[in-house]
Amino acid sequence: MKVDELVAVSGVGMLQKIVANKPNGLILEDIDSGKTKFYSLRKHQFTPIATVAIYTLEDTTPLIDVFKIMRDKEASLPVPAANSDKMVLLEYFENILPDYDEDRVYVSDIKKVVKWYGFLKERDLLKVLDEEDASSEEE
């Protein structure tokens, strides 16, 4: 699996894997069950996580890089639960990405980042981050 294959779908809640494109939507695979389902463009919005970035004071930091920082610092700085207190999440994110733009990155965004990171970690899919590095080095 590659990072480019992971997509967030509005109304679904968790990341899905892209199986095929259709003119009127996407066929996605549930990562846990492996079942595929068609999602219509009329009902859903799709966000490939490879295109997501976090606003910083200077520019933006790709979500994949934020995940790598979280993984690298996890031994000394445990990842809080996505439903943790607002102040716990803000303090954690301040330690992970000190230059994030506090005016444009909301607590709901931080919750989503923590939730997606936990989702990938539970399923041992954080290795897709390393595969992304290897494929970019080959090019």
CATH class of the largest domain: Mainly Alpha
Number of strands: 7
Question: Quick one: overall form?
Answer: globular
> Unreliable runs, pLDDT <50, ≥5 residues?
none
CATH architecture of the largest domain: Orthogonal Bundle
How far apart the termini lie comes to 18 Å
Q: In which range does the helix fraction lie?
A: 25-40%
CATH topology of the largest domain: Arc Repressor Mutant, subunit A
Characterize the main sheet: 5 strands, antiparallel
Number of helices: 4
Oligomer: single chain
Strand-residue proportion: 15-25%
* Tally of discrete structural domains: 2
> Which structural class do the helices and strands define?
alpha+beta
- Taking all Cα atoms into account, the compactness measure Rg is 16 Å
Q: Which strand order does the major sheet show?
A: 4-3-2-1-5
- Average pLDDT over all residues: 89
The helix-strand sequence is EEEEEEEHHHH
